[in-house]
């Protein structure tokens, strides 16, 4: 039984670009044969093209999941009369999993969205620009030339609308591709200058794809609009960096908890040990601030650029200018913190050694420090504390939840900072690591704080494990 259909693909309803519609007519000429996709349950429903590009939209479909999860959680809380946040806080395991899963999902969406948009607006035009260097040049006739205006929520945007015709092997083709980076943007004057170079009725030179005569362009080289294709890189960098640091932190916390809580008492051994700071090296903070500053300022710069153009045209957008002020200030603050983090890379790195990394309550152990004479000269103050804190070691808020604090060393004399040692005696009633009251864990850390001359402060945390007193 013969059936008929006029559907190109499931979501095709026409093209704004003449060149795209022409490609379809060249691909599916009258009286030629082609394979179509038929719905087996309804033979009257058929398509010529399976739109595989729809799969590129899948990362964007993950974004509404955030609203779904928030809404579902709210409905559950109202329906059951339970406060989900209280349940999460009381269950340390669930809290730890959420602290890992939520940022991983968030940065994964960031990364996927950035990769897809960068592929569409960055890689594709760039690869086509390289391939067009081998395209054939041919004379074309300009049919129409104008600046297209498109209204939007943020004001009007403009595009170069030029339709031209050309002949290949005796056949006439038409195209409206000016460059490989289509779309519209702000800035009328720039588009008008381009349009004036191609008046209707004049002749010009276009470049033809030898493998597809319907594929043509007037400007095959680099254009400033291609720089907008780099904007999605901010999402790619932010997503990749976020995933890296989240997974790195998750592994570090897992190892820390395993060292502090998973070992039996017989596994602990005394002996001199060089401690490693739990908050890692300075490069992580610098790269984190740098990537976030680039991402933030990259997005804000697009709107700032449009605002500057409005002032240059003599039609300033006052609301946009006032609205952007706090965002610009935040961007400047991020750059300042990035600079501070960069300077911190060159700060001295004190060496901290303990005679026993797992002392018992009521026992004594020795804390040694070594900075070096040249490094100590830039110190204004050095303070070393032994603190007992409540909460998870990975929770930054636990630094303020101090249950017990003992001063190990404090001086303003740089000569005493170069190296030294102090004996610390733990009280008999010192809470051991992994002890808990009301499901609140306890952990110990040696805090080293240094105030430097004309440099950022040093704040390092060295975890130690305190065991129960010997019975």
Radius of gyration: 32 Å
Total DSSP E strands: 16
Sequence stretches where pLDDT stays below 50 over 5 or more residues = 88-94, 260-269
Describe the sheet with the most strands. 5 strands, antiparallel
Number of continuous helical runs: 11
Mean pLDDT: 80
Strand arrangement in the largest pleated sheet: 5-4-3-6-7
Helix content: 25-40%
Coarse morphology: elongated
- Regarding quaternary structure, what we see is single chain
Sheet/helix structural class: alpha+beta
In N-to-C order, the SSE pattern is HEEHHHHEEEHEEHEHHEEHEEHEEEE
Beginning-to-end CA distance, first to last residue: 92 Å
Q: What share of the residues does DSSP label as strand, in percent?
A: 25-35%
How would you characterize this protein structure?
With 471 residues, the chain is of the alpha+beta class. Helices cover 39% and strands 25% of the residues. Strands 5-4-3-6-7 form a five-stranded antiparallel β-sheet. A hairpin with a 2-residue loop joins β6 and β7. The protein is elongated and about 100 Å long. The protein starts with 17 loop residues before the first helix and ends in a 7-residue tail after the last strand.
């Amino acid at each position: 039984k013969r059936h008929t259909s006029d559907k190109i693909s499931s979501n095709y309803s026409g093209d704004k670009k003449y060149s795209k519609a022409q490609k379809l007519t060249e691909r599916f000429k009258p009286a030629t044969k082609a394979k179509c996709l038929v719905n087996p349950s309804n033979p009257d429903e058929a398509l010529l093209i399976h739109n595989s590009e729809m799969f590129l939209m899948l990362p964007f479909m993950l974004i509404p999941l955030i609203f779904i999860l928030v809404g579902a959680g709210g409905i559950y809380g109202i329906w059951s009369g339970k406060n989900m946040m209280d349940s999460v806080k009381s269950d340390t395991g669930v809290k730890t999993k959420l602290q890992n899963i939520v940022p991983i999902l968030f940065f994964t969406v960031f990364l996927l969205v950035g990769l897809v948009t960068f592929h569409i607006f960055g890689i594709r035009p760039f690869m086509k620009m390289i391939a067009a260097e081998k395209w054939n040049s041919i004379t074309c006739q300009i049919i129409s030339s104008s600046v297209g205006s498109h209204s939007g929520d943020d004001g009007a945007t403009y595009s170069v609308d030029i339709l031209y015709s050309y002949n290949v092997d005796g056949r006439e083709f038409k195209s409206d591709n000016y460059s490989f980076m289509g779309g519209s943007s702000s800035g009328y004057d720039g588009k008008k200058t381009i349009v004036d170079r191609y008046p209707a009725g004049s002749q010009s030179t276009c470049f033809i794809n030898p493998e597809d005569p319907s594929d043509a362009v007037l400007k095959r080289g680099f254009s400033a609009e291609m720089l907008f294709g780099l904007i999605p890189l901010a999402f790619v960098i932010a997503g990749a960096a976020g995933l890296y640091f989240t997974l790195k932190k998750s592994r570090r916390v897992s190892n820390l908890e395993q060292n502090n809580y998973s070992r039996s008492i017989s596994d602990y051994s005394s002996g001199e040990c060089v401690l490693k700071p739990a908050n890692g090296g300075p490069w992580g903070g610098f790269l984190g601030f740098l990537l976030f500053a680039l991402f933030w300022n990259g997005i804000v710069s697009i709107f700032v650029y449009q605002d500057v153009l409005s002032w240059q045209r003599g039609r300033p957008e006052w609301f946009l200018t006032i609205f952007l002020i706090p965002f610009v200030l935040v961007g400047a603050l991020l750059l300042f913190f990035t600079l501070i983090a960069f300077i911190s890379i060159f700060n001295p790195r004190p060496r901290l050694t303990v005679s026993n990394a797992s002392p018992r309550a009521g026992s004594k152990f020795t804390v040694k420090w070594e900075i070096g004479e040249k490094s100590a000269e830039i110190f204004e103050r050095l303070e070393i504390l032994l603190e007992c804190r409540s909460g998870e070691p990975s929770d930054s808020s636990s630094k303020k939840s101090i249950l017990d604090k003992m001063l190990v060393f404090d001086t303003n004399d740089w000569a005493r900072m170069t190296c030294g040692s102090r004996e610390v005696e733990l009280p008999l009633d010192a809470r051991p690591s992994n002890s808990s009251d009301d499901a609140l864990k306890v952990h110990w850390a040696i805090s080293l704080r240094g105030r430097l001359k004309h440099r950022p402060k040093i704040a390092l945390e060295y975890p130690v494990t305190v065991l129960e007193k010997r019975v």
